[in-house]
Prior knowledge:
The strands form 4 sheets. Strands 1-2-5-6-11-12-13-16 form an 8-stranded parallel barrel, surrounded by 7 helices.
Amino acid sequence: MDRPPRQIHLAAHFPGVNNTTVWSDPRAGSHIEFSSFAHFARTAERARFDFLFLAEGLRLREQNGLIHDLDVVGRPDTFTVLAALAAVTDHLGLAGTINSTFNEPYEVARQFASLDHLSGGRAAWNVVTSWDAFTGENFRRGGFLPQEQRYERARSFLHTTWELFDSWRGDEIVADRRSGVFLGDARAGTFAHRDAHFDIAGRFTVPRGPQGRPVIFQAGDSDAGREFAASSADAIFSQHGTLAAGRAFYADVKARLHRHGRTPEQLLVLPATTFALADTDEEAHERAHEIRLRQVSGQTAIRFLEQLWNRDLSGYDPDGPLPEIDPVPGENLVARGRASVRMYRDPLATAKEWRERAAAKRLSIRELVIEVTGRQTFIGSPATVARAMDEFVRAEAGDGFILIPHLTPGGLDEFADTVVPLLQERGVFRTEYTGPTLRDHLGLAVPEPAVRTAG
């Protein structure tokens, strides 16, 4: 008997400040007005997406001592936006990035527990870390945490919030196994957590939410990040978009789960991806090329190269060859507050690889940056894209995708109207929501509270 096709999970990333958005397009809208967030969320919900995802920016980024061009629009608070979106959606999951380095467990737990109640069980938390002193200057602990300790604090932070979520109990409390909501005369229990990072005690102020705990996402690609996800996360974001790299990443993180007493179904792998659609595959490739040219201007290419080289490269021609000089090793002083800077663990080796690629293909600086910054992109007619996504998931290179459109807020509309119906026809994507919570959408069980359960 043939097995049913693997179901695809879909989510939408509201991209915020970046060069993914084609700002020169007249349809590009505000990244701070609520109408933009509402349009984006409603499109994702009518297409039956699992969730919407917001990133976080704790400091405006700088390049050569100046505020980066793409940060001037500002970055609104994640919790405020998600709470507002809860009022204009009914089913869509609401995921936000919240930093575990510069926040406190009690406050974050209260915020997520409140959001889970307000949304009827749709809250999700992307747990991230930060080690750079530049971001830390906005906080009391600016620069205090060595890089090697950030996941240690993150693990302690996360498990402390779990203690808070689970602290509501009583002698006669019974938790419904499906919803996780406490039945009976629930009351706040005491908590006390003391370790190298936290020393807190008291009573938690928010009852256990519909999901028990918010869904936990993680995005680290290092060995420590993958292990953290395998031990504690419900889903991990991936930047490995090619089929070969995706399968290797997928196999690696799934294989780690057994060490933590977990099964492969308990951790979803969701690659970030872009897309370009048109009536024919040829037209779609032409459109994709035009989009990339508009995303990476000559100035943007030079600024991106500076992040690796750790030098002022403003005198170089973006349509010329890469610099012959090597990157400056050590702390990056050119690009501040940019997550991409941390990705280059060996700048000299990366620069050597880029030079070899540029020489082999005769690429200019701008052409190379366009090539190395491209994510896994699905390009083609709606039918081609739907088939490629299905094949990617069937090949176990991912469990679904985080879509990042090149226009905000309307860039998701075309995908929702043309690709989603074809995925539904293939029987690999839902036609209706089958439950009220984000855990229902993702096929994840409600974590058992430390009390007797019903059913």
